[in-house]
Design goal:
single chain; 638 residues; mainly alpha; 47% helix
Length: 638
């Protein structure tokens, strides 16, 4: 590196002065890195922010052409920077003044994208540099020529970067607050906004820069001009820019379809209120409602104007939103704050969805993994506080059934307290909320419903009672606990024959539900003892021996519970049934098979020992075809 170039690059003023006094060439450029243009001393001084070195070079008659010509002897980066551009971009005020004083042009753009010195100074909010450039008659409304920033003016950049002080200077210099950008082919694909003409007002809204927006609007910026088909108003709603939205409304943007600028009130085919709800923007919603926007306006159909990606994302939150009222959308998206605002502004809590027929309360009580129970309960509480009917459901699915099915015990209690019908039935199968809670093992919900006097004997259209559903439920989720609660409330352990004919006892034995089976047997034993006692009190003093009803045959398979447990290798269930005096020799009606046959067929020696150890067990019991358990074992061996 030449000594002069090195001294300037390091900002060594004294050394620079000595070298120039010794007749060092102030225009001698040198390539510092392969592939890059040569570095000119003037450019090195600007990059080093060394104004004294720059002053010495200019006094030594360094060529001004090296300052103004992009890519000539001063292009350090290879993208066409010039010295004035770099000084403005680095906010090197003293360097910038020196360059302009010695005839450098304030207009020369960078080669790569056409960005002007004024534009880059504005992007840094370098207010003093902006002022100097404007005093040098830099074009305030000049647009960039190409690249990703193609078609933007300095006012656009000020709005985009929230350079408020620079923006005021530009507007004082008569720059337009409403000039649309002029996108170029090379800027396409960089963003949705760059593919259409955007005003500075739109840019400020897009970035959420309320201070810059106010300055633009006070200077007469166009509040209505869209970018493509998206107005600043729509952009504010879609992006949740509440402060910007308030400003736009203050400057006469439309908030409701009844206003003159109706096209501004449709966001992706939705009303502004609906778009704010779907976006989850309660502050925007409050601004709209205070501006008298329609709380019930649903999706627009013929007046859709916005095609922004954010609108499409909002629509996907609740399907296609055809005819969806904002209040229903708030429930569907669990936007609790939005829901409360809508109710406070008199939205009707009874309006159903036009697609499903479901009312907001029923949707709030129906979790379906959309929102946690706490949020669901909060929404239900809000709706009930504003007089929603706890029994209303045009879709015929009671809100209480939804809450019970999802295990939302707080929601169940809330609806019961609001006088929901505890035995409200589904139209499809006549199931009650108690049955829904029992089926999924929601013991707390079962207890709450039982406490509210729900009918523990109620059956659905197939004859299934809640206790049967509780046996079906997974013990890990509370199935056995539900069985205990129902039996304690008076449910019959052998009640609720399913269409296939299974009793709860048979089902528990078949599925290996040990805890549920123990509870059912215990209840059956108590019933047998009570019946025995009642018979003994008769005058004749004699009565038959009543046994627990563990011998009742399955109505379809004609198999006793014991045989079902042995066939499935449920050892603990087998022990329980034998302890309850189940008949060890009970046989299958169709072929006369006994439990010993089943144990032998499964080669279950442990089960076979248990059965044969019982009093009266017949090791030579013969099935209809004359086969004994020994024959079965012999077949397995040979």
């Amino acid at each position: 590196m030449p000594p002069l170039l090195q001294a300037v690059s390091e900002g060594q003023t004294g050394c620079t002065e000595e070298l120039l006094a010794a007749k060092a060439d102030p225009n001698l450029a040198r390539q510092l890195l392969p592939g890059l243009p040569p570095m000119h001393p003037i450019f090195a001084a600007v990059h080093a922010d060394a104004p004294e070195c720059l002053r010495l070079l200019l006094a030594a008659r360094a060529r001004v052409v090296a300052i103004d010509t992009p890519g000539y002897a001063g292009d350090r980066t290879g993208i066409g920077d010039n010295a004035v551009f770099v000084a403005a971009g680095h906010a090197s005020l003293r360097c910038l003044r020196l360059l302009l004083r010695h005839g450098a042009s304030p207009h020369v753009p960078r080669v790569s994208d056409g960005a002007t010195p004024l534009l880059t100074a504005t992007s840094q909010d370098a207010v003093d540099c902006v002022r100097v450039l404007l005093l040098a008659k830099a074009h305030a409304d000049r647009t960039t020529l190409k690249g990703t920033a193609g078609g933007l003016t300095a006012v656009h950049v000020a709005a985009q970067y929230d350079a408020v002080d620079s923006l005021r200077l530009l507007l004082q210099a008569k720059a337009s607050p409403s000039t649309p950008s002029t996108p170029t082919a090379s800027s396409f694909g960089t963003s949705s906004s760059s593919m259409a003409a955007a005003t500075p007002v739109f840019k400020a809204v897009e970035k959420g820069h309320a201070k810059s927006l106010r300055v633009l609007l006070e200077a007469g910026g166009d509040v209505h001009m869209p970018c493509g088909e998206v107005t600043p108003f729509a952009k504010a709603v879609l992006h949740g820019r509440a402060d910007c939205l308030r400003l736009l409304l203050d400057f006469k943007a439309a908030a409701s379809p009844g206003h003159h600028h109706q096209q501004q009130t449709r966001v992706g085919g939705q009303s502004p209120v609906l778009a704010a709800v779907l976006g989850g923007f309660p502050r925007c919603l409050e601004v709209l409602l205070l501006a008298k926007a329609d709380v019930a306006a649903p999706t627009a159909t013929a007046t859709a104007t916005a095609t922004a990606a954010a609108a499409a994302a909002a629509v996907s939150a609740v399907g296609n939103n055809s005819g969806v009222a904002p209040l229903f959308a708030a429930v569907s998206t669990a936007a609790t704050e939005c829901l409360e605002l809508l109710l406070r502004f008199k939205a009707d809590p009874h309006v159903p969805s036009t697609t499903t027929g479901q009312v907001p309360l029923a949707d709030a009580s129906c979790n379906h993994a959309k929102h946690p129970h706490v949020t669901a309960t909060q929404m239900m509480e809000l709706l009930l506080r504003f007089k929603a009917n706890p029994n209303e459901s045009p879709s015929m699915v009671p809100p209480l059934y939804h809450a019970a099915l999802d295990g939302n015990v707080d929601g169940v209690r809330l609806l019961i307290a609001a006088r929901a019908t505890v035995d409200a039935r589904l139209p499809s199968n006549r199931a009650t909320p108690l049955a829904g809670a029992a089926l999924h093992g929601h013991a707390a919900c079962v207890a709450a419903l039982v406490q509210a006097k729900a009918d523990v004997h109620a059956r659905d259209d197939k004859g299934v009672a809640s206790v049967y559903r509780a046996v079906v439920a997974d013990d890990a989720t509370g199935g056995a606990a539900c069985v205990a609660i129902l039996l304690e409330a008076g449910a019959d352990g052998d009640d609720g024959l399913y269409a296939m004919g299974h009793t709860p006892t048979f089902l528990a034995a078949k599925e290996g539900k040990v805890d549920a089976l123990r509870l059912l047997i215990r209840q059956s034993q108590r019933q047998a003892e009570q019946q025995q006692q009642e018979e003994e009190e008769e005058e004749d003093g004699s009565s038959p021996l009543y046994l627990p009803r563990v011998h009742i045959l399955d109505s379809e398979s004609k198999a006793p519970p014991l045989l079902a447990a042995v066939v499935r290798n449920h050892y603990e269930c087998t022990e329980l049934l034998l302890g309850a005096r189940a008949d060890v020799n009970a046989k299958l009606v169709q072929n006369g098979s006994r439990p010993v046959h089943a144990a032998a067929a499964h080669a279950n020696a442990r089960m076979l020992r248990l059965l044969l150890a019982q009093p009266g067990a017949d090791p030579e019991a013969v099935a209809v075809d004359g086969i004994t358990a020994l024959h079965v074992v012999a077949c397995l061996l040979y």
